[in-house]
């Protein structure tokens, strides 16, 4: 307890809480279509492939919107950027309540839900911006635990949809987003850890570096897997095991809650054990768990237990990766985080599509799970190769933060054109 109090004194607790709440509400809204997918699929009589497309649109849209929001945050401030985004979310929810009548309208609503998915990089940078490097992993883990909003969504949205109708849930969300807006206005303060005089090129330098793309692809497995599976599982449980729509949400909640909760632990462990070491274990566990899930489709209990293990690993991986981000890009964490979140979250958009196509054309969801297990192992190999240079330049062995006495000069954007750089 005393160490946690010391951690809070090292930064600004109210801003940390405001960032967590903002991210939690955003995650809750982002996956609404997934949470209500059994109801929506029944209304529009959707095929597995159509369900996959419907579920992937919010994830892809949210990924593509993250980087522009991160850039906006660099120029108007992270706190103001969150307020702009939440105002747009409220408008989007009203569109869903009044205007969704066809499948095309539903796809358009998926794009608007992506506004909520854009919150990630700014939320983490806002919440961790007051904390020194040795505490950023835990700070980002605490804010990132706002992923619990996905668990709240799949738990609460189905009963509300059954009671009031699924479109009414959008209207409730339009009102609910006022809560984090008020908390943000009253309690949050803009962190001082940003160089407002940096050029746009300096802010987006990570776009032209191998490290940025490696981080993004790893994040495509960890966070992409988390958000993609959370969105897909209500439909999977409903179609594969014949449970009720509400029960499908409850079972999904068990896994999603575990992934969100363990994210904090992943950041905390990574501060001590190192992000690279943590990610090595995470990617191995994810690969094994997904293969076993794919071949355990006959047992509801075994599938649920394996998914809980898988989500725990995914959550720890999310925390571990974002322990490394502020070490690699200390001056532009918001934009680097947004870029990594943008590219990485696109992996989540692949999950529902791959599952839907696997079911429709191969007759089983198994090969969708196997595909992402293989992807996890591929990214493990890439990371183990890259970490040799990482631990020689900007991190200690295993991916821990360098102490002031051993800290190397930060890695900046190259001065020449990208084609002349060496990794």
Notes on the protein architecture:
It is globular, with a radius of gyration of 20 Å. Helix 14 packs antiparallel against helix 15 (245-273) and helix 14 (210-241) runs antiparallel to helix 17. Helices cover 79% and strands 0% of the residues. It has 423 residues and is mostly helical. The chain has one domain (14-188, 202-402): Growth Hormone, Chain: A, CATH 1.20.1250.
Whole-number count of domains: 1
- Mean pLDDT across all amino acids: 88
Number of helical segments with 4 or more residues: 19
CATH homology group: MFS general substrate transporter like domains
Short structural description:
By secondary structure, this protein is an all-alpha fold.
Give the helices and strands, then pairings.
Blueprint: H1 2-9, H2 13-30, H3 32-35, H4 37-44, H5 48-76, H6 78-99, H7 103-117, H8 120-128, H9 133-144, H10 148-164, H11 166-176, H12 178-187, H13 200-203, H14 210-241, H15 245-273, H16 275-294, H17 300-328, H18 333-362, H19 366-393
Features:
mainly alpha, 79% helix, 423 residues, Growth Hormone, Chain: A, single chain
